[in-house]
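Input.
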Amino acid sequence: MKRRTFLELTGAALAATAFPAKAQDTCVSLNTIAYNVLAFRGFPRTDDNRHTIGAAHSRLPEITAEALRVFKPDLITFKEGPYEKKVKRFADALGMNYAFFPGGWKGDYTYPGGFPGAVITRYEILFSENRPTAGEPHPDTLYTRHLGRAVLSTPFGKLHVITTHFHAHKEEVRIEEAKKIIELIDTLRDSAPVLLQGDLNHRPEGPEYKLWVDAGLVDIGLKMGIGEEPTCPTTGGRARIDYIWATPDLAEKATGAAVLNKPPFVPDPEDKTSFALSDHMPVMASFSG
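Output.
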């Protein structure tokens, strides 16, 4: 898709996804986005849009950066990221720093490189680690997608950011993945606020969701009124599986949230040759000091 078209669509997305007056009237200090980017492939692939996706494919890191720039993000976390060199291209397009987290699964011909994650931010990254743990190393059965942690220097002081992508098909694995992250958060939360962003592959009615709530974490989407909005797929969203959670000390600073559910994050319904940037929609949250 041509650059001009993407800019126009992104402008429309911004206008249609504006935060409530509470967020607009507040001096926003931190905007964060959680996004499963489908390795910058574009979605869906149809006979009508095959040429459009093909023409845009080599520039999708930069096109995606351009689309998100409108929302003035300070922090972006990737799920189903591409190879690290494409993450770097995306970060460079926004003038940001990044930390890359290789996935537990090494991939195959369909998904070479597996499902890595990343933290991309304009803030200084003080520390980062792949597959962080509160104790013993994680078994290979957990975090076959990815789990990563970065410590950032932000306007709120030090901030722990955890990014993850849970197992898609096995509830019992997701429950163990959640429990291990909760143990990790318990070791971190006294030293600084914790932000958890992920494609968690569970719905709000699932048992995994209750674990987060019982651990004292706050679902920022629910808090800010978008709890029922689906995040996947971009062709007729059916499920809310992408989340931003925070410890209460950060959650109390929340000023807005949105699912970015307009083109180019979903296909343009008026244009059969269009495509979405991913099969997931980005989730955004804002915080103010």
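The longest strand covers residues 146-154.
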